[in-house]
Amino acid sequence: MDRAAVTAAMEKWSQQRPDRYELEFELTGRMQASYRMIVDDGQVESAWRDGQPLQRLPRAWTVDGMFDTLLADLDMLERAGRREPGARFLRMLGVLDDPTGIPRRYLRVEMVERGANPESGWNILRLTPLGGR
Fold first, then answer.
1. Which of 109, 105, 106 minimizes the C-alpha distance to 117?
2. Which of 17, 74, 80, 81 has the greatest count of CB atoms below 10 A from its CB?
3. Where are the alpha helices (DSSP H) in the chain?
4. Per-residue pLDDT of the chain in tens (133 residues, 90 and over written 9)
5. Domain boundaries, the chain
6. How far apart are CA 39 and CA 16, in angstroms?
């Protein structure tokens, strides 16, 4: 996964993004859980974690928020390549849906010198437009 691929996927998504959609996905790694969200005009209207309603409605788990995560991780990877302080080497693996651009799957592996390499990511199970474009 590289910046050009993510940028192209973001362009596809921006051209087809429904105004309102339902998103179901699984987080992997330390924060493993199943999520369901209703997103309206880029804002989370309602959200559930493992079937339980959430009080806090995190924008990070909208499709746009997922792209923000990918861009932040690409920035981190580039900073690590320049050996900037605090930057971590990452391994980024993902599947960007060709027709829609959505980041269908993502796996982020932090490359550490000692111990296990922490992994996290997501797997989008379903995105359903609920009206609009």
1. 109
2. 17
3. 3-16, 63-81
4. 899 999 999 999 999 999 999 999 999 988 899 999 999 999 999 999 999 999 888 888 899 999 999 999 999 999 988 888 887 888 999 999 999 999 999 999 988 776 667 889 999 999 999 975 4
5. 3-125
6. 15
